[in-house]
Each structure stands twice: as C-alpha cells, then as structure tokens.
Amino acid sequence: MASIDSFGAKAQLEVGDQTYDIYRLDKVEGADKLPYSLKILLENLLRTEDGSNITADDIRALAGWEAKAEPSKEIQFSPARVIMQDFTGVPAVVDLATMREAVRDLNGDPAKINPLSPAELVIDHSVIADVFGTPDSFERNVEIEYERNKERYQFLRWGQSAFADFKVVPPGTGIVHQVNIEHLARVVFERDGVAYPDTCVGTDSHTTMVNGLGVVGWGVGGIEAEAAMLGQPVSMLIPRVVGFKLHGELPEGTTATDLVLTITEMLRRHGVVGKFVEFYGPGVAAVPLANRATIGNMSPEYGSTIAVFPIDDETVRYLRMTGRPEQQVALVEAYARTQGLWHDASTEPEYSETIELDLSTVVPSIAGPKRPQDRVSLTDAKSAFRGVLGDYVDAEKVEPKGYDEASAESFPASDSPAYHGDNGAAAPADYASAAAGANGRPSSPTRIKLSDGTECEVDHGAVVIAAITSCTNTSNPSVMIGAALLAKKAVEKGLNRKPWVKTTLAPGSKVVMDYYERAGLTPYLDKLGFNLVGYGCTTCIGNSGPLITEVSQAVNDSDLAVVSVLSGNRNFEGRINPDVKMNYLASPPLVVAYALAGSMDLDLYNEPLGKDTDGNDVFLKDIWPSAQEIEEVVDSAIASEMFTRDYADVFAGDERWQQMDTPEGNVFAWDDASTYVRKPPYFEGMPATPEPVSDIAGARVLAKLGDSVTTDHISPAGSIKKDSPAGAYLLEHGVEARDFNSYGSRRGNHEVMIRGTFANIRLRNQLAPGTEGGFTRDFTNGGEVSSIYDASVNYAEAGTPLVILSGKEYGSGSSRDWAAKGTALLGVKAVLAESYERIHRSNLIGMGVLPLQYPEGQNAESLGLTGEETFSITGVEELNDGTTPREVTVRADDKEFRAVVRIDTPGEADYFRHGGIMQYVLRSLLA
Predict the structure, then answer these.
(1) Phi/psi of residue 147, nearest 5 degrees
(2) Domain Aconitase A/isopropylmalate dehydratase small subunit swivel spans what residues (predicted)?
C-alpha cells in the first residue's frame, strides 16, 4: 500500500461492526467531476502513491483530466487481481516456471517469481463438444477432456501448489467470466484492512464482462498478466471516455443479445478503440445486471478497453442473489456511496464524447457471417445471407433464378448493414455475381443418408451447428430461460430439430442447469438435442467438435457453404469449425429456432419452421415466449442458495481432479517427452543487462495481409490439420491425429505454437496469391511457395530478419499472447499496419516486436509495396538514448517513407529496450 499520502486522503469507513481504511476521493480537487471509471483509476493512484512510480503530480493530472484532449499523460495502474482461463493461463504459468529457472541460473532466488496480487485461473476452454444429443454427453465429454489434457492439468495443479496466491477452478465448473461475476468478483476488495475498488486484468479479452458489475477490468496478453502478477503496474495513458446514454426500455420480443449487437454496431461505427466506454442516464436502471454483463462482455468486439456500468441498486441486488455474504454486500453499497461511485441518473459527468440509444428502438438481430459488428436485422436475415452467399460459393455451381422485381427488392441496399462483402467491403457490383449470391441456389441439393437411416438434403446455408454457448449469453437467465421456453413450446407443437443440425448446450455455470431442473425445462431442450455437453466455451472458442459424419462428408464433397448459429461473441473466419464457412451470432432462443429451421435461407418472420401434429404450419411467433412468461419462470426458479451451494467448494474439483498425480517442488521438472508443456526459449542466453536496440536491415516480408486480420488468423485456437507443420510435428512425436486436440490446448508447447502461427485455414497471404492458409513465398528459395513456418526456418538460417505488412485493425479479437509470441519466434522484427487493436499492439512490444504504422492515409497499395521488396528500418536506435522516436525511416528497395512508431508510453519503451516485458520484469526482480 501507499507509503505517501500527499492529499490526506486516508480515512476510515465503518460498515456494521467492521472498520476499514479507505482513500477518500473527495480529498482531491476535481475528483467529483470525473466519470465513474476515472474515479476508480484515481483511487488506485491515491492508494499506491510512492513518490516515484506514482506521484502527487500524477494524481493531480488525473483529477484535472481534460475530457476533449488527446491522451498524453501516462499513469501506472495496479490491478487488485489477475484472472485467467486455461488456454492463456497455461502458457502464463509455463512462463513463470521458466522465469524461476532463469532466476536460479542467474544466481537469484526462484521464490521471487511468485504472484504478489491474487491470481485465479478457471479451466473452461478445454472441453470439446465431441459427443452431443445424448443423456450422457456431459459425462463422456468430461472424460475425454481429462484424457486429452492430463499433462496440462497436472501442470496447473503443480502451479497451484508451487505459487502462493494462485488458485485454480477445476474443469466442469463454468466459464471464466461467468464464474468471475457470480463468485470471484468482489466489487469492493478488502486486503490487510483496506477497502478499495475491485479491479482486474485478465488473460482473455472478454474479461470486460465484469464491467457489468461496476468492476474496472480488461483483457491483456498473458505476458502483461504475468507482469501484473509479479507486482508490475500496467502502464497506460489516461484514456478518453465515451459516455453512452441509455433511456427507454427494450420492447417485447427483443433480448439482451439484440441490444448488445446493436451497441456493438453503433460503437464500432463511432470508433472507440483504446477508449473507455461508460453507460449512464435514466435507462441504466432498466438494464438488468445480466444484460449489463452481456454488454460489457462484447467490449472487444467494438474495440473499447472497457464498457462499464456504475454501481447502483441493481448491482447490490445481483450480489445478494448470487449469495455474496451480507457484510460484503453492505460494504459495496457503503463504499460506493461514500466515494461518489453510486450511480445518480440525474447528474451527467463530463465525457470526451457521447452517444445515445433509445432502448425501445432495438429490434431482433443476428450478426455475421464473419464479424461480430456486422449486425443484420432478423427481418433481413434471409436476404442478407443471399446477398453474401456469392462470396463463399463458386459461381459456376450456383444457378441464378433470374431477375424480377421481388428478388431485386430482397437484395439489401448498399447502405444497409446487411450489405457487405470481404472485410466489410461492398458485395459484388456486377449483376451476374450479385444475382448468383443474392438469389442463387445450388443446381441440385446434396442428398445424404444419416447413420440412423434418416434421409435428407443439405444445401448452401444449411445450419449444421446450433450452439447455446459462450460467456456472452449463458450468464443471462432471461435469454437462457427464453431458449428453454421456446423449446418447450416447439416440442408441444410437435417440432424437432432438423436431422443435419449438431445441437449443443454449454452453460456458463452449474446454476443454469439447476434452474432448468427446478423449472422443469430440461426435458424439452433434451428432446431437441440440446443436451448438456459441458460447462465451457466449446463452440465459441472453436471447440465445436466434428460435424455429423455424413454431413461433413457432403459439405466437403459438394463444397457447400454451410452455417453455424451460436449464442457467442466471436464468429471470425475459420474459428468455429473447419467445415463451416459462414457463422452467425444470435440469442439462445434464436439458436433453438434456427435448429428447428435448419437453414439460414429462411425468413423466420414469414416462413414456417415446420408443421404441428395436426399438419398446420408453425411460425416463430407461435412459439416465441413473452417477456412476462420468462420473468415468471426466472422469479420462481432462481434462488440464491443455488449459487452458495454450487460455489461452496469451487476450488476442490471432482474426484478426477483430486486424485490426479501432481508434481512437486518449487521448480518444475520438465518432461522432454511432453507434447503439451515444454520449456520455452525466451531466456536462453539472456545477459543480465540488455543489449542495445538496433536498426533493421535486409529484412524480407513473411506475409502481406489485408484488413481485419484477427488474432485468430495469426494464432488459431481450433483444430490442427494433419498436413500442417504443427500436425507433422505431433506425428513425428508419436501423437496420432485423433489425439491432436486443438492449438489452444497446446499453448504450453512453443514448438506446436510456432508452427501454428499464421496457420489459420482462412488466412489469405497476398504474397502467395491463390493460396489459403499458412503459406508464403520463400525468397531464400527463389520465391517458391512454402509453409510460413518452413520459410521462417530458412530465413533464420540465412540470418534474414522478417517483417509483416497488414491493413486496418491488425490483431483484433482475442487477447491472444501467442499471436505475438509466435510472431516473435518466427523471426519477425517489425509489423507495419494501417492500425492496430490495443491488446495485440501491446503484446507485440511485450515480445520485442516493433509495431509501426503507415503515414496517415497511406497503406501498402498506395505506397506501391508488393511484399517482394527488401526492407530496412532506420531510426530505431534512438531508443538507446532513452527517448522514443515518433517516426522511423522505412526503405523498401527504391521506395522510402516515414512510419509512425506505435510505442505509446515510456513503460512500453522500457519493455522494448529489454527485448520484451518478461526480460524486463526478470531483470527488475534480480536488481
């Protein structure tokens, strides 16, 4: 805690029979005018003021924040805790274990590598929906999960015993962000008698779900999280804050999903990358906590750092409902009111920018087929699907129906959100291709016979996956109950899912199944094939498991553009399933509806889902539950004792977890035979002091990429192809293809992850036109096309540094540290892009990769860059003088231009000088 209190802010707060020390915000002039989120940051500085890292001038600068000014003042933020999931948590713990060895090798004390802030890891990303539609789906999937991930789980159990203040929530419990809001989040933290706002950073971009509870927290890369665990503050510029005013109420028939897709579209269009978003106004009180969490969860999809709701009566109600101790609930309310953190709808803080939404204008929506921000009104879903089908189907295989007025009207207008092609560009302009996409159909649907003897036809647009999954919606009782009630009404009408649809239910916590059982709704979901498959991310993270075998065969034989519909937050290309080209986000009730419909080529408003037992058409409106019906079930089925019971011993795990053999010792004993957990090379040969930064000369381009290249494109989380470099590596090490598991599960093995970098099956490298996947041209071999990994090996042997060229929004999506780690280990020294998403830019610096930006209004095409040039980058060496150059000179053969250096803070410059954040932290601890 702070050793200096320049403002006399330390005081006491009595709550019941307990007294807490607090740091009063009203002791700092100007604090009362700040937005909620900046008040949280101000308290953080007050409490951690030490006269060097945090000074009185820093505190005054934040209190005197100029709303309209561009961010320029750096502050050091010390989060109260760190939260992780297993895909990103395993490599984080691998790094900590490696750092312990490095400290020992440099004659230091390995025990210094230990969390100084509480760290909690929830295992939720590993379960795959291999088995579905059966009563024992959950049990069988968990059994397979333990078999696949034994090495990883043993390693995490070692970490739990080897590191202090590090806890693991075992498999089969719930999704990290839902466990966070239902149990782990404190809202107001108490440690050593001091009460202060609960803040966190997490190794998953959707950490922002906790913003719905009034907790300021956001996603960072695993390497930044490791630094925070080891006591390093997060370096940041005081951000711009966008105020989002809400008024009105959601209309009948709409869901939280519809609201969040609307907000996502609005904020992505407005431009909030790197900014804080804060909700205020009279409509806030009308937004239930679960809806707030859903909105906060999607913050990465619109690009903001956070999307926070202030504390109010609804926050307190939710804490009570989820079984928090009464003293904790009382502390939250008393602290928030005392510190001016309690929401007052009648006052409006000053914001950098404002945006407004009347909740009554929200309409039922979906988003897709490949970006969360591409919202489509449900009324336009069929025509929007047809409008982009041509982008996914070979035109020769599509038979136009012919032009007529009706079909012309169904094609979305060019200014409609439904009208978009690759990377958000307009759909094909010429009528022939537009007609094929908008009004086309296959010349003959593919007929298949399923294993149970059922015969059916599968066509373009067939829904082959319908998944209720992901933290986004499975925290929300209204949409989960809504889905179950819709299932009940459908079953009572005699409807069933279409036989080619893989249906899965993966709730965010055990509480969901508790209230389903209490309400008597589980049998109806089971009847439609939505049996419980696991408590985890499943389909949303790419763990959808295989399609129905015969369906997969037909999709590949006929090159069908089939569809997944999921209640998730991510639908990027190649993420959900390798057989599925088009992916749509939807609310849980709509997921059930599309399982009944079986196709995206259906107007859910005007075409029937099927026929009832009397042969009458059944429409969506006939089975859609009313808000009153949903509310009655929510009120009667959910009770606080469900939460207290399910979370009573949350870290203990089941019998499998408890009986697992666990390695011992404070330094991990690496197994050379392991294909899951291996010691990475980050610290090999690291000197005690950093070597000078050098300019880059003789570099070649490894990949030239377009806009909206996500971290999924750079470092996929899904399945590993047998003929990929990663697949070849596993086969060479005795792993059979059926045991490959996923890239996400293999993140503890750098050998797999290097080979998987830029290996997404949908990646298009413009340097190797006509290819899709992880291919490039190798200029050490005459420009021959090869895998990106193989080319990187040749470049490394030749001593040739590498660069990446890209367009706008480079690195959007998940806070995936391996997207930066893999890039660095491939030998990439610099990335040149039009713009970056915040987390990935930071991660690149954290791995010693230089992020550069083209001059304003310029890009590779306008500068005439083909990717075949040899690059040199000069001016980087200015960093050795303790300053950060604003620009450097880039020369590509005979072309020369200035590029903006995107090292944005002095702290980031320190990390880069040391070759990365881990090296910086290690040297700091040794010093």
Answers:
(1) -60, -45
(2) 729-856
Whether 213 is in a domain gets the answer: yes
Q: Are residues 547 and 493 in the same domain?
A: yes
DSSP state of 212: G
Q: Which of 465, 475, 481, 744 has its CA nearest to residue 585?
A: 465
Q: Is the peptide bond before 369 cis (omega within 30 degrees of 0)?
A: yes
Q: What is the pLDDT of residues 135-187, one digit of tens each?
A: 999 999 999 999 989 999 999 999 998 998 999 999 989 999 999 999 999 99
Q: Which candidate, 603, 753, 749, places its Cα nearest to that of 674?
A: 749
3-class secondary-structure state, position 57: helix
Give the position of tokens 């000078």.
692
Return the minimum-mean-pLDDT range out of 823-832, 854-863, 904-913: 904-913
Same domain, 487 and 538: yes
- The answer to whether the CB of 28 falls within 8 A of the CB of 41 is no
Does an H or E element contain 406, and which?
helix 405-410
pLDDT tens-place string over residues 383-394:
999 999 999 987
Q: Is residue 529 part of a domain?
A: yes
- Domain of 222, CATH number, reads 3.30.499.10
Q: Helix H segments across 799-914?
A: 817-825, 838-846, 906-913
Q: 11-36 as b/e, with b when 16 or more CB fall inside 10 Å? A: eebebeeeebbbbbbebbeebeebbb
Stated pTM of the model: 0.83
Taking residue 353's Cβ as centre, other Cβ atoms within 10 Å add up to 16
Length of the chain: 927
Question: Would you say residue 399 has pLDDT above 70?
Answer: no
Q: How many CA atoms lie within 13 A of 231 on its CB side?
A: 13
pLDDT value, residue 412: 30
